[in-house]
Each structure stands twice: as C-alpha cells, then as structure tokens.
Design goal:
Aminopeptidase, six-stranded mixed sheet
Amino acid sequence: MRTEEFPNCCTALVLTDFGQTELSGYGNHPVNAVSLEKEIRETIDNTEEIYAVLVATTNSQQKVANKVLKKIGFKGTEQMSKGQHKTKLTLWWYPLRGTNENRD
C-alpha cells in the first residue's frame, strides 16, 4: 500500500496500491490481509492529527483490500461500472476528524 496527497486538498490522503489486479498502476502483487490491515491502522494512527479524511478506490478484483477496508470501518459506495474495464469500482472514505463512529 502507498499513500499520496489528494490533489489540491491539504486535508485528504489517498491510500493506493492494493495489488491483486492487473489494472493497478503499480502492478499485480499478492496482498496479505493481516499485513494490509496493520498498515492501514498504522496510517490512521500516524495521520489523524494531520488529515481530516482518508480515501481509496478499489476494483472488484481487489477482494482482500475491499474486505479489510470494510472491516476497519471505511464507508464505501456501491460498486460502479467502468467504461474501460469489466471490473467495478468502489470509492472508500474514512473520516479522521469530527466523528468517532469508525473507531473500534
């Protein structure tokens, strides 16, 4: 997993590179659910004082990331069709400030 600044927004951070798909800009690589969950939780802990929200997109092939994001408490859209590929897209978000509803 990687993080990137959300374009033109200083309070949002994008999580990306979840592997498990040929369509990834970073290539297809295996993903371990336990490691991914740990990495995302560490990102939350290390960024909640700096950013207001984390966002991510996954496709329907990225089953591990989809499951982990949901388990952690990210909110997701319904899967949406894409014109250029047969996979479906989900937009995820996790508010870091202003709410405690996502906390375990």
